[in-house]
């Protein structure tokens, strides 16, 4: 008897399951509510078919048989009804979630739908919230870069026109014979050479900045000692400091090695030191300090620029920022790209760069992770 019941129930279940899978395959593009209803109907039908078949085959007859069949039918209807209610709730929650997504405009953020959602839909809602947050941050970065690009174009256009106009005037004077005494000719030639060097440096900075913004900056990191990087940077700017009448000092304690591209990191440090020299008055001091703890190396450059207005501090590393209100540029000024390049290089090393007002000037600080002693 048990084997007969098992065989009948299994056979009917397999037939109904096959029919259910076929129906689900046909409805795979329909609402999830319809698919849930089909699943519930298949489950209930398989159960009812087995019970009905066994009831009919068994010796139960008359009123008891009718009672059993009635209970089975009512139970099946209740199961299907509950499945349909659950399906409607799932469909309603899905519709609410879709409505919240469709309500998002380019100028608005995603607002999660009110009320509770099923766990899976709640997970999707949180994922959508995070995705829209990343999109918003991306749009803000894009707007910031576009603003920086426009400002850069304005600055560079001005800085290109000024030396080009001067060189054109000197070249025309030399060609027309307006200037013919040897001393003035030598001075004109020397000035043209200086302006050409300035333009060459500006083009180099623009190329470097474009690589950073495009994510094309290729580093060749290796274990390096920051003391050597500092020494090389100070040696490279010593002539500029002497010409400006600014004293350069360096202070360094025992520092663990860092994993970095020595050439690019040295360029970032030189940009900071050159910036400090340019904005420190004659007979002032620029101090480079190097300290470290177990996990972080801190490289700071302190100058005597007189400080930066608090409102300008967040913009110091923006492209083409010069802070004219606090820092009057001199004839040796750059294109305002040095600090932006320094930030890009430091961040490419997974470090951080910041600036604060301190004493008679300000202090720029680079933070880099030190190498694991075990590596």
TrEMBL record:
Asked if the record carries the keyword Transmembrane helix, the reply is yes
Please write the reaction equations for the catalytic activity of this protein. Answer: ATP + protein L-histidine = ADP + protein N-phospho-L-histidine
Residues of the Histidine kinase domain: 155-372
> Which major enzyme category is it?
transferase
Cellular compartment(s):
Cell membrane
Q: What Gene3D superfamilies does its record include?
A: 1.10.287.130, Histidine kinase-like ATPase, C-terminal domain
> What CDD domains does the record point to?
HATPase (cd00075), HisKA (cd00082)
Q: What is this protein called?
A: Sensor-like histidine kinase SenX3
Q: Which residues cross the membrane?
A: 6-27, 34-60, 66-87
Entry's Gene Ontology molecular function annotations:
kinase activity
Reported EC number(s) for this entry are 2.7.13.3
Task: Identify the SUPFAM superfamilies for this entry.
Answer: ATPase domain of HSP90 chaperone/DNA topoisomerase II/histidine kinase, Homodimeric domain of signal transducing histidine kinase
Which keywords does this Swiss-Prot/TrEMBL entry list? Kinase, Membrane, Phosphoprotein, Transferase, Transmembrane, Transmembrane helix, Two-component regulatory system
User: What InterPro entries does the record tag this protein with?
Assistant: BphY/WalK/GraS-like (IPR050351), HATPase_C_sf (IPR036890), HATPase_dom (IPR003594), His_kinase_dom (IPR005467), HisK_dim/P_dom (IPR003661), HisK_dim/P_sf (IPR036097), Sig_transdc_His_kin-like_C (IPR004358)
């Amino acid at each position: 008897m048990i084997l007969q019941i098992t065989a009948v129930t299994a056979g009917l279940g397999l037939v109904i399951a096959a029919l259910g899978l076929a129906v689900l395959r046909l409805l795979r593009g329909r609402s999830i509510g319809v698919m849930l209803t089909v699943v519930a109907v298949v489950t209930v039908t398989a159960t009812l078919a087995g019970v009905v078949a066994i009831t009919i085959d068994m010796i139960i007859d008359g009123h008891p048989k009718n009672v059993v069949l009635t209970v089975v039918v009512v139970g099946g209807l209740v199961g299907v009804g509950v499945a349909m209610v659950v399906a409607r709730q799932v469909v309603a929650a899905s519709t609410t979630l879709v409505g919240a997504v469709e309500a998002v405009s380019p100028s608005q953020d995603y607002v999660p739908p009110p009320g509770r959602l099923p766990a899976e839909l709640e997970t999707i809602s949180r994922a959508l919230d995070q995705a829209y947050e990343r999109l918003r941050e991306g749009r803000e970065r894009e707007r910031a870069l576009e603003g920086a690009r426009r400002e850069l174009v304005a600055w560079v256009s001005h800085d290109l026109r000024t030396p080009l106009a001067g060189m054109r005037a000197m070249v025309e004077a030399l060609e027309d014979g307006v200037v013919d005494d040897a001393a003035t000719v030598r001075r004109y030639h020397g000035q043209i050479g200086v302006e050409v060097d300035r333009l060459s440096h500006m083009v180099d900075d623009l190329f470097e900045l474009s690589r950073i913004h495009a994510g094309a900056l290729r580093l060749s990191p290796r274990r390096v000692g920051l003391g050597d990087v500092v020494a090389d940077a100070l040696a490279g700017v010593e002539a500029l400091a002497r010409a400006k009448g600014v004293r350069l000092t360096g202070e360094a304690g025992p520092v663990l090695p860092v994993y970095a591209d020595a050439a690019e990191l040295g360029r970032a440090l030189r940009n900071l030191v050159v910036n400090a020299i340019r904005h420190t008055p004659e007979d002032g001091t620029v101090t480079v300090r190097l300290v470290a703890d177990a996990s972080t190396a801190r490289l700071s450059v302190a100058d005597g620029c007189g400080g930066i207005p608090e409102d300008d501090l967040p913009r110091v590393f923006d492209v083409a920022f010069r802070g004219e209100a606090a820092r009057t540029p001199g004839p040796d000024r750059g294109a305002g790209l040095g600090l932006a390049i320094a930030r890009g290089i430091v961040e490419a090393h997974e470090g951080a760069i910041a600036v604060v007002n301190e004493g008679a000037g300000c202090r720029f600080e680079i933070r880099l992770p030190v190498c694991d002693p075990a590596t």
